[in-house]
């Protein structure tokens, strides 16, 4: 917090080598430092009248025969540089500045000259000086510090440590003004080997959040770089192509739709602007895509002592899985340890749920008949008795013998008489479609997008993104109806079982299970259905540069946002939380989104230490600190978000009456009927059709279709199952849905563009989107509740019964 | 009523428009004022009431095996699809509705029979709620530059203008009359808004009768006078809101636009807002998109774009932004006109005023704004909204567009408006409903002749009475963004303008988010307030109790039991209904406030439970309290079970009981 007396945003300059021992002010020009100060003293800056500065700034006074220079070192926003405020007392008349620098002209009202400047600590030498008696310098309490003065190591060094991560180096920096977002901020644009950071003046990086979600731009997130000069000169910056002009402005487009637009200071600083721009281009090109910023976990581990529990169960131990299984009440299921060493499938988690009656050996055999060994596993158990399973495609080349087939069948049936097989990719876009749509959406949302004018709506339609969101929601509602209202077990089958299966099964759970709509529940859901289930985040988010990029996860987040938009009282988390998760997908601070499979993630984080130990008995325990910090996951929100921001993750509109407990009480009787006769259905385009066989390899006599009262007309229905079940949307209000089930609308007008996410780069949109008063209202409320709390103890404790109610007082007195 | 051929048809099916398979069976009633559909379902007996004046088109479709379909489209965007078993009945209903929906005399309109059971005094008070002379005073008028002119006394100069008008002080009656002769329909330049911060003003008029070369000295003097009334600027903008082509075409008819060469120090500007016919067909196209049964993403987005509706909205907004900027940033006065100066001019002037002045963003200020720029300046409500049977080509959603502009602004500045979306929707509804007298006729003169104020009630009073329903919980008058002029980006961006689902699909409950954040916030806000009050009350009580206890101990030491008892009862009396309240409160802390003990009152968020102070607004409302002809209202009688979908207004319920 700077006082208005000072120019709000100091600029930092490094003197070129020619002008060593000089200081530069963008306002006044150059001035020389005393060539050999006779004295140096360090004290605290005098307090400013009527202003309350949150910190005490060290004041350095240099004295030389001709000059008296007082410098105020500032706890800088920069890790590397200090801000200095200096006053030069007027020189005695007749004395010229040495070296012919222009003398200062405009004195400030109090006679002293004030300005801001900055520079590298080493650019001028402040030699250790002997102490001199106080010459009546302005400053009430001057804490004299004599002896060596090493600003860089004392003051600046600490800033460096607080701002930079271990292993981080500052490559270049330049002062500038952040444009586009309100308010405009002056500060410094810094490029390091890890990130581009815009640090507003006066802002201090919190120790707790080494990466700021607000001001830091991780290098790998940079999607497009533009340098702008004047009104028309725009250069798209690519590695290898040199910068053709001195940029007045740099535009950094994030792949997460964020935009950082910094206008550089004019007036002698062009070289720096040039430097920092080039540095960003280079650093971006050199940034190692898949590398985790280990420094973050190190810096975090340094702070937290002892063992810490991850914020949510990371599902890396069988206990986690067992707890989760019990929570779901899946009594017919158990945790299988067959993949403990990742020898069934590396893309599968070490543990998963299989039917209780199936032996691990059967599991192993059965899984062999599925693509990449991803056999049927339980995703979610509906309290009504039905199950949601997911599996990969059948491995057609396998040569199944009869027993294997039986194992496969029994795992798919999992004890249910009715099983509905859902071809996941049916009606859903392909991975290529998703990628193309996302690219188009990104192009459309760029600030200079030419499509944004008259043809905005059709251009938006042309991205197909909203259409894909729509089809995902529609399919998920259908499956939800099957699982909850019709109490059918559903097997989601996708060839790879790592993309849309995760999307559908998590959406179904969000629609059907109120538990999944809590903050904790949602994070566990993503951890289970995406992270542990082996969604290839690294590949899909395009970090590897592979061709298989397709942001399925971001599509999922959009679907969740649509739900949040349609049911604002049903979700404990807010849009900010979804945004945070959206942005975190590109931040390489934890391994959550940096690996494709649980196996790779585990390898990296060293969670196989115990395993290694078994192999090499002589191996000593890894250092304790190591294993602690490696447990960091994306769910450690405090890595990037301040506690105020984390508070905003809570949806103030969440209605606690939708709490999961009340819902679980209403459990319906289990419909699980073991053994034949059983029937298998294929669900496609809103219609159930009987299947003769479950597996593609041969007819199975046990699975002959029986007629079912649920069987709708075999005609192809244009209506989705959800429509059939519940009549029409307008009917929803009156018709009681199964408790906890949400059926989203997916008609054209109901699917919205997630403006707060995709149009973030367009400042004109931002205006309306910031409704700071929602949180304001919450503040008011919590303030009142706080008041009430404070009030209550005064009444309630010991003489609670006496004071509480005059009636009781009366009755007692009788 | 002579026009009702059949007052009641049974076994009518009301088809849901999204899924044709789903229909509800019920009975259709025709009354003098409403079409009523009562569901047969015994538990709900849900009622759908539609005012005749809301009916826009009735379409009889080809008879099918199930019956004869009748499609009723309403001006408030409700769509009723009925299937009547007998062709004959259908025809009767059709013929009756055709006549009922097109009254030929003002006296047939609902407002003349609507009686909310207010006495004469209350009604008169209602009409004085919005006072334009107060409003001009608030603007800082009259002052050194502007004065109230009586030139239009008894509508001598212009019959579509009000009698009280502000004109520049230097404009003499001679100049005004001269200028009026040079203006279409004699609508001479008059003040619409005065920006007291810098003396700039917004004036409005109709197009000049310039033809290809005609000039009028008085008109030139009039514009000069407007410029001089603003010492801060040496020019004025003249904004013609029409597309240039349209304006040029008008020259052939002896009308046209100001020639910059003839008028000194004007800057002339065209802003292409299309005419009422383009707007009408654009809305038509958009409503067709809304009527699609299950629109896909591309159906919807392409249809919306092709309708051009949002483009037109943007054009109006752009004009408003231009004027607001000219006034607030350049300090220049603006004269706005279109052809006759009562459609586009009204839109643009009111949008600009809304941007400039936070007062118009309050509940009362918004009423004033409509009163000023629309009602008093002779916007032709009767013609545009087809209140009486007339030329269908005159009908156009002019004020609908303005209302939508306000909504678009509310979306962009959620904290800037004191009122909420519901307020806008209700105003839109009543512009067509003819339930209140405010929007009757085409001009103030006609309204006076009809003695509207003596025979009907004012909507403003009604809205004001129920203002609690219309408050925007996010409103912050002191927010930096919302203080003073609303600043919109100059760069045009179409994606800022969104489809207003809440308006055009508002009877499609399935298309609305099923939980309303606004309602929730309102509940929270109310709760906050109650908590605050309660805290105060509790603290007071605590003090009292402590005092009493103190007394009690004193008393105990001295007196015997019975007297103690009496001592307490007096203290009880002093705090009125203390005990029950007290214990109830403690239970409900902190999530519930005491008055909301009944579960469904406060925190229910579904759209269906929208608190509606205006029963007629929900698709299936309970009845108007003041309906005079109740002969056909037998089905529900007094015992109609409150349907879930329409949260009822207690008062109107009671009124119904009384009348029934």
Automatic annotation (TrEMBL), chain A:
One of its GO terms (cellular component) is cytoplasm. Coiled coil: none annotated. Residues 796-806 have a biased composition (Basic and acidic residues). Residues 794-814 are annotated as: Disordered. It holds the Pfam family 3-PAP. Residues 315-701 form the Myotubularin phosphatase domain. GO terms for biological process: phosphatidylinositol dephosphorylation. Belongs to the protein-tyrosine phosphatase family. Non-receptor class myotubularin subfamily. PANTHER family: MYOTUBULARIN-RELATED (PTHR10807), MYOTUBULARIN-RELATED PROTEIN 11 (PTHR10807:SF51). This is Myotubularin related protein 11.
UniProtKB/TrEMBL annotation, chain B:
Residues 126-504 form the Myotubularin phosphatase domain. It is found in: Cytoplasm; Endomembrane system. Substrate binds at residues 275-276, 338-344. GO terms for cellular component: cytoplasm; endomembrane system. Residues 551-660 are annotated as: Disordered. Residues 521-551 form a coiled coil. Keywords: Coiled coil, Cytoplasm, Hydrolase, Lipid metabolism. Gene3D superfamilies: Pleckstrin-homology domain (PH domain)/Phosphotyrosine-binding domain (PTB) (2.30.29.30). GO terms for biological process: phosphatidylinositol dephosphorylation. The active site is at residue 338. GO terms for molecular function: phosphatidylinositol-3,5-bisphosphate phosphatase activity; phosphatidylinositol-3-phosphate phosphatase activity. Residues 566-596 have a biased composition (Polar residues). The keyword Coiled coil applies. It is a peripheral membrane protein. Residues 307-351 form the Tyrosine specific protein phosphatases domain. PANTHER family: MYOTUBULARIN-RELATED, MYOTUBULARIN-RELATED PROTEIN 7. Belongs to the protein-tyrosine phosphatase family. Non-receptor class myotubularin subfamily. This is Myotubularin related protein 7. The gene is MTMR7.
């Amino acid at each position: 917090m700077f006082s208005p007396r000072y120019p709000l945003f100091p600029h930092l300059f490094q003197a070129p080598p020619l002008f060593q021992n000089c200081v530069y002010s963008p306002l006044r020009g150059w001035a020389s430092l005393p060539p050999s100060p006779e004295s140096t003293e360090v004290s605290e800056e005098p307090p400013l009248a009527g202003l309350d500065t949150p910190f005490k700034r060290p004041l350095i006074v240099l004295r030389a025969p001709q000059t008296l220079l007082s410098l105020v070192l500032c706890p800088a926003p920069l890790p590397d540089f200090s801000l200095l405020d200096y006053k030069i007392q007027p020189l005695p008349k007749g004395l010229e500045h040495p070296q012919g620098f222009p003398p200062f002209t405009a004195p400030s009202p109090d006679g002293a000259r004030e300005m801001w400047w900055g520079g590298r600590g080493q650019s001028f030498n402040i030699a250790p000086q002997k102490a001199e008696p106080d010459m009546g310098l302005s400053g009430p309490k001057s804490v004299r510090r004599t002896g060596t003065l090493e600003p860089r190591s004392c003051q600046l060094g600490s800033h460096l440590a607080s701002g930079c991560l271990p292993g981080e180096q500052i490559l270049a920096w330049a002062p500038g003004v952040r444009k586009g977002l309100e308010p405009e901020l002056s500060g410094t644009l810094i490029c390091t080997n890890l990130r581009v950071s815009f640090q507003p003046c006066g802002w201090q990086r919190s120790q707790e959040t080494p990466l700021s979600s607000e001001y830091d731009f991780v290098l790998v997130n940079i999607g497009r770089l533009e340098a702008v000069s004047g009104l028309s000169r725009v250069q798209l910056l690519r590695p290898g192509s040199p910068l053709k002009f001195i940029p007045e402005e740099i535009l950094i487009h994030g792949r997460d739709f964020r935009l950082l637009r910094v206008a550089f200071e004019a007036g002698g600083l062009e070289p720096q602007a040039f430097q920092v721009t080039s540095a960003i281009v280079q650093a971006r090109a050199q940034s190692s895509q898949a590398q985790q910023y280990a420094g973050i976990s190190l810096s975090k581990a340094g702070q937290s002592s002892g063992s810490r529990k991850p914020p949510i169960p990371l599902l890396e131990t069988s206990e986690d899985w067992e707890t989760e299984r019990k929570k779901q009440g899946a009594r017919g299921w158990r945790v299988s340890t067959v993949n403990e060493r990742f020898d069934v499938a590396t893309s599968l988690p070490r543990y998963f749920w299989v039917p209780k009656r199936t032996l691990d050996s059967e599991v192993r055999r059965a899984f062999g008949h599925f693509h990449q060994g991803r056999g049927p596993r339980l995703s979610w158990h509906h309290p009504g008795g039905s199950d949601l399973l997911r599996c990969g495609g059948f491995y057609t080349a396998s040569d199944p013998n009869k027993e294997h087939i039986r194992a496969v069948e029994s795992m798919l049936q999992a004890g249910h008489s009715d099983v509905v097989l859902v071809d996941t990719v049916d009606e859903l876009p392909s991975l290529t479609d998703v990628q193309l749509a996302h690219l188009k959406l990104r192009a459309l949302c760029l600030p200079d997008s030419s499509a944004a004018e008259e043809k905005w709506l059709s251009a938006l339609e042309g991205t197909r993104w909203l259409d894909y969101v729509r089809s995902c929601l529609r399919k998920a509602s259908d499956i939800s109806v099957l699982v909850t209202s019709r109490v059918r077990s559903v097997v989601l089958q996708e060839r790879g079982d790592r993309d849309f299966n995760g999307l559908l099964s998590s959406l179904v759970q969000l629609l059907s299970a109120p538990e999944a709509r809590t903050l904790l529940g949602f994070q566990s859901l993503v951890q289970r259905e995406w992270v542990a289930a082996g969604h290839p985040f690294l590949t899909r988010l395009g970090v590897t540069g592979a061709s298989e990029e397709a942001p399925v996860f971001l599509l999922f987040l959009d679907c969740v946002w649509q739900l949040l938009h349609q049911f604002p009282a049903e979700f404990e988390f807010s849009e900010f939380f979804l945004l945070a998760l959206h942005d975190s997908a590109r931040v390489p601070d934890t391994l959550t989104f940096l690996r494709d499979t649980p196996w790779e993630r585990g390898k990296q984080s060293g969670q196989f230490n115990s395993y290694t130990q078994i192999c090499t008995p002589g191996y000593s325990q890894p250092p304790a600190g190591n294993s602690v910090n490696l447990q960091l996951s994306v769910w450690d929100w405090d890595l990037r978000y301040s506690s105020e921001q984390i508070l905003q993750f809570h949806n103030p509109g969440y209605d606690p009456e939708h709490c999961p407990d009340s819902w679980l009480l209403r459990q319906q009787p289990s419909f699980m009927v073991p053994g034949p006769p059983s029937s298998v259905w294929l669900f496609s385009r809103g219609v159930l059709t009987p299947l003769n066989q479950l597996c593609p390899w041969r007819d199975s006599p046990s699975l002959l279709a029986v007629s079912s009262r649920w069987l709708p007309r075999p005609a192809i229905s244009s209506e989705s199952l959800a429509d059939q079940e519940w009549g029409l949307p307008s009917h929803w209000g009156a018709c009681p849905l199964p408790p906890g089930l949400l059926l989203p609308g997916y008609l054209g007008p109901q699917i919205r563009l997630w403006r707060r996410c995709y149009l973030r780069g367009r400042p004109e949109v931002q205006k309306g989107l910031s409704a700071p008063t929602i949180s304001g209202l919450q503040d008011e409320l919590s303030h009142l509740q706080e008041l009430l709390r404070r009030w209550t103890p005064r009444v309630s404790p010991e003489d609670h019964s006496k004071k509480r109610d005059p009636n009781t007082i009366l009755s007692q007195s009788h | 009523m002579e026009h009702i051929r059949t007052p009641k048809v049974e076994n009518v099916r009301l088809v849901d428009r999204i899924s044709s398979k789903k229909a509800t069976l019920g009975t259709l009633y025709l009354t003098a004022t409403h079409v009523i559909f009562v569901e047969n379902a015994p538990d709900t007996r849900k009622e759908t009431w539609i005012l005749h004046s809301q009916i826009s088109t009735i379409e009889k479709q080809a008879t099918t095996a199930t019956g004869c379909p009748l499609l009723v489209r309403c001006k408030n965007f409700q769509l009723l699809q009925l299937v009547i078993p007998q062709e004959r009945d259908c025809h009767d209903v059709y013929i009756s509705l055709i006549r009922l929906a097109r009254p030929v005399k003002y006296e047939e309109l609902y407002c003349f029979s609507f009686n909310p059971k207010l006495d004469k005094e209350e009604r008169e008070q209602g009409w004085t709620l919005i006072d334009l002379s107060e409003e001009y005073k608030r603007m800082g008028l009259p002052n050194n530059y502007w004065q109230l002119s009586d030139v239009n006394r008894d509508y001598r100069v212009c019959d579509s203008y009000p009698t009280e008008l502000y004109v520049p002080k230097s404009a003499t009656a001679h100049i005004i009359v001269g200028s009026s002769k040079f203006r279409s329909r004699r609508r001479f330049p008059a003040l619409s808004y005065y920006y007291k911060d810098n003396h700039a003003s917004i004036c409005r008029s109709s197009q000049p009768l310039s033809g290809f070369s005609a000039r009028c000295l008085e008109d030139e003097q009039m514009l000069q006078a407007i410029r001089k009334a603003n010492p801060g600027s040496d020019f004025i903008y003249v904004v013609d809101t029409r597309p240039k082509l349209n304006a040029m075409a008008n020259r052939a008819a002896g009308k046209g636009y100001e020639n910059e060469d003839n008028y000194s120090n004007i800057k002339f500007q065209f802003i292409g807002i299309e005419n009422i016919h383009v707007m009408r067909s654009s809305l038509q196209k958009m409503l067709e998109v809304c009527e699609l049964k299950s629109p896909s993403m591309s159906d919807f987005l392409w249809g919306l774009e092709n309708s051009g509706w949002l483009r037109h909205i943007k054009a109006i907004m752009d004009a408003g932004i231009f004027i607001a900027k000219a006034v607030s940033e350049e300090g220049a006065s603006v004269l706005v006109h279109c052809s006759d100066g009562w459609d586009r001019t009204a839109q643009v002037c009111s949008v600009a005023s809304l941007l400039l002045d936070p007062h118009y963003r309050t509940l009362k200020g918004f009423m004033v704004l409509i009163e000023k720029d629309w009602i008093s300046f002779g916007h032709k409500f009767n013609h545009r909204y087809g209140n009486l049977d007339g030329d269908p080509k005159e009908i156009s959603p002019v004020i609908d567009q303005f209302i939508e502009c306000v909504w678009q602004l509310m979306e962009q500045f959620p904290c800037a408006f004191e009122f909420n979306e519901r307020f806008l929707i209700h105003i839109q509804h009543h512009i067509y409903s003819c339930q209140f007298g405010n929007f009757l006729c085409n001009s103030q003169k006609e309204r006076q002749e009809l003695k509207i104020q003596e025979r009907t009630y004012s909507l403003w009073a009604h809205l004001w009475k129920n203002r609690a329903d219309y408050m925007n919980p996010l409103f912050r008058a002191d927010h930096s963004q919302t203080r003073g002029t609303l600043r919109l980006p100059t760069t045009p961006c179409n994606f800022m303008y969104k489809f207003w689902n809440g308006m055009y699909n508002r009877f499609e409950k399935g298309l609305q988010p099923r939980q309303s954040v606004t309602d929730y916030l309102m509940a929270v806000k109310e709760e906050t307030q109650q908590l605050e009050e309660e805290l105060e009350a509790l603290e007071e009580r605590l003090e009292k109790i402590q005092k009493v206890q103190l007394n009690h101990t004193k008393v105990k030491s001295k007196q015997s039991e019975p007297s103690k008892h009496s001592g307490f009862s007096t203290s009880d009396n002093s705090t009125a209904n203390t005990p029950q309240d007290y214990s109830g409160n403690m239970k409900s802390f902190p999530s519930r406030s005491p008055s909301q003990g009944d579960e469904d009152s406060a925190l229910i968020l579904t759209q269906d439970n929208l608190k509606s102070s205006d029963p007629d607004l929900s698709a299936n409302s309970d009845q108007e309290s003041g309906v005079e002809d109740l002969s056909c209202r037998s089905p529900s009688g007094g015992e109609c079970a409150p349907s879930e979908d329409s949260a009822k207004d207690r008062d109107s319920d009671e009124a119904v009981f009384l009348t029934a």
